[in-house]
Every structure is written in C-alpha cells, then in structure tokens.
Fold this protein.
Amino acid sequence: MTVSVNGQRLWQSLMDLARIGATPKGGNCRLALSVLDGQGRDLVVGWMREAGLAITVDQIGNIFGVRPGRDPQRRPVMTGSHIDTQPTGGRFDGCYGVMAGLEVMRTLNDHGITTEAPLALAIWTNEEGTRFVPVMMGSGVHCGVFPLETALTATDLDGLAVRDELAAIGYAGSAPIGTVQAACYLEAHIEQGPILEAEQTVVGVVTGSLGLRWYDVTVTGMEAHAGPTPMALRRDALYAATHLMQTVIEIANDPAFAPLGRGTVGVVRVHPASRNVIPGRVDFTVDLRHEDAALLDQMEQRFRVAAAALAAGETTGTRVDVQIVDVQQFSPTPFDRALVECVRSEARARGSSHRDIVTGAGHDAVYMARRVPTAMIFVPCKDGISHNEVEDADPRHLEAGANVLLGAMLAQAE
Ligand SMILES: [Zn+2]
C-alpha cells in the first residue's frame, strides 16, 4: 500500500504559519530570532508536539522533533529546513521543507505506521543570514563549519547578540550541539529558479550544489586626454577590461562547461569616469560557478590565461596591468548518489514528472551534506521568483514533493 500525504492539510499549515509576520503584499517577514520568529517557532513546535514528536532545542536554537522507531539504537532519518525569512520574504522558502516534514509525521500517525529507524524534523536557526551572519547559522554550527561561540556572539545592526535574542524568544536551548545526529538528511524546498516551471516538471531531483569562486579584478592602463591622444598610443583600461569581461561569459557558455557553468560580471567601476578622459583603471567583480570541482578549476584556469594574455598585450595590442584577487570560494557539494537515486525512484514510483537539477543557492542541506548522506527535493515556484513577497507555489506541486519526501524517508527508515 502506498501512503500519501494530505495536501490540503499541508497547504493549510503553510497558510497558518504565513499569518505570523504577514506582509501587505502577501509575503512574510519573520527575521531570525525576532519576536515574530519566536511566535512562528511556538506555533510549529506546538504542532510537532501534537504529532507526538519529542522536542530537543540545542544551544544555537535549532529545534529537533524526533518520532521514535522500533530500533532506538539507530540514528534518525532527518528532514527539515528553516522558518526564518527575508525582510520581504515569501511564504514557502524554508517553510515548505518544515511543513512537508511535519506532514510526513502526521501522515504516518494517521496510518499508525512505525518505522524501524526513528524519524526527525529539524528547524535550523537563521538560515537566511539577513539579520545575523553567518548565513545558514544553525546548520553550520551543527555541522562544525564554524564554532558555536562565533554564532552566539554575532550581532545585528542594533548591536543585539544572537545569544541574548535566542534567550529573549525562549529558544536558548540547553542541549549540546550534536545531541540529535542524523543517519541521513532530506530537505524539500521550492526551486527558487525558473527551470522546473519552464519545463512543466513537478519534482527536481537535486544532485548537488554549485561550487563558487569570487574574484576582484583590476585592469590598469593610463589616463589621458580623449582628444589629443591618438588611438595607437592609448592604454585604455576599459577597452582592455571589456575583453576580459566578455571572456568570463564565453567561458561559462563554452560547451566544455555548459549547461552547469555560470559566469557573471556583476560590478564594474571605471576611473576616473569622465567623458573626455581615457579610462586609466577599471575594477570589476567575477563570479564563476560549476557543480564539478575539476571543471571549475578549468574555468578559473581559462580566466587566468585570458587575463595574462590581456596583460601581455596579446589581446588588444596594448599592455595593461591585470590584478586578480581571490575573494571567496565554496567547493561544489555533490549529494549522496544512493540517496539521490532514492528520491528519483520515489518520484518515478509516484508518477511525478522529474528531472535532475543542481542548486545554485545555499541551503542547510549543503552543510549537512558534509556530514551525512544528503539529498534535496525541489518543487517549482511561480515564475521562478523567491526572496520576494510574491513568491508562490502550486498546492499540487507542494503535495507531490511532500509525497516524494514521505516515500524517501520511509525507504531510508526501513
Ligand atoms: Zn530557504
């Protein structure tokens, strides 16, 4: 017998949660550890208790609700996400993953099903990183990415510390970090991008997250008067820099790296920015991404070779100085092959259209993937829009994604 979630109840819970911190345009504002975040937590923890989950709150305020299995020795099969939002956030980002997990627990209760392994539902503290950095704070501490103390001493713009704000809303938990350890982790989430909707596909089987590298680039030539300086004698920094900017896009579009390569120049500053002065210096940013670490290395290599050629005058016939500063990088995180296949086969078994997809955005699952087998389930969101009050999703898609989550959790907890 195939058990299925109650899509209507899932939708109703999402809408009930969305009443807390509702914004005029139909979105949500529940900044991490605000009074409204506290109210949202209270509501959901109440539902978790009603569903019979044993609640643990750890020292960074992560909430875990555990449903016992037949074998108490086994680590729980965990799902979860976050319920904090952006200042003009939507009703589904994060909340969907938590409500889908809750719906799984409720459904199993309805059918009187006990799994072999326990199941757990996690609500991670401060995923959004709007009010406090680092972003993905609760899962980051849980996974040992940064120390508890770093998170507790983080302050917002008003100088209020995470430690005090956790206490103020009643979620300064006493359980040591890592009290609840997962056997594996599954997270359902809206896609926050346009691919599933464009392809009219209901389930995204997430195979991993893109790696990212950020650079600051400075191209220096020579400022000179735009009139008296002949073209042949110029060292125009902007003319040179535009070649390298084009290269960033061309690298990402190269069949060797497409379709998962990404190349973006997001900020450009021209000096001295005067209409009758040949630009002497250009600063710009570069963002390179790929899901494959080796290919991301190659993208970077191509970029550096192009920069060297530009500096040597091979590209434009004029030498310029090119400086590249490494700003930040995240390694690509492939999800667990077997768990990803489990998600794929559940989608197939339930007759949901599905495709493999990578996440370009950060999620708690990306940190969890460093510690335990991890996979994600994406569902479409309207026009691919998220981090926006108009964020929307189709109840049928949310239900289908929750059913895949249910099936995958049952399979893992056998
Ligand atoms: Zn999210």
In short: The chain is about 35% helix and 20% strand. Residues 82, 93-94, 127, 189 surround zinc ion (CB under 6 Å).
